[in-house]
Please model this.
Amino acid sequence: MIEALIINSFICIGFNIATEPGMILNWIEKLLEKAPLWLQKPIYLCPMCMASVHSLWVFPTLDLPWHYWFGYTLALCGINALTYGFVTSIREN
Model:
């Protein structure tokens, strides 16, 4: 399951970066720019919040009971926080 969490984290971080201005998925940001923040965050704006929605891409492939999804999402949120902090520090330098 740790491999799935790491892959899922890269999906979240990659999606977040790909929606920035000048990137290939920036049209998603433009499409949702007038949407409420509570909708923008889990879709593309906040990698930690993205764990809730974007875990639905990977979790069903794990053949785990659905009641494990909550714990998986919390773990993904934590990994996203660490990964995003690392990626942000590299991109700023």
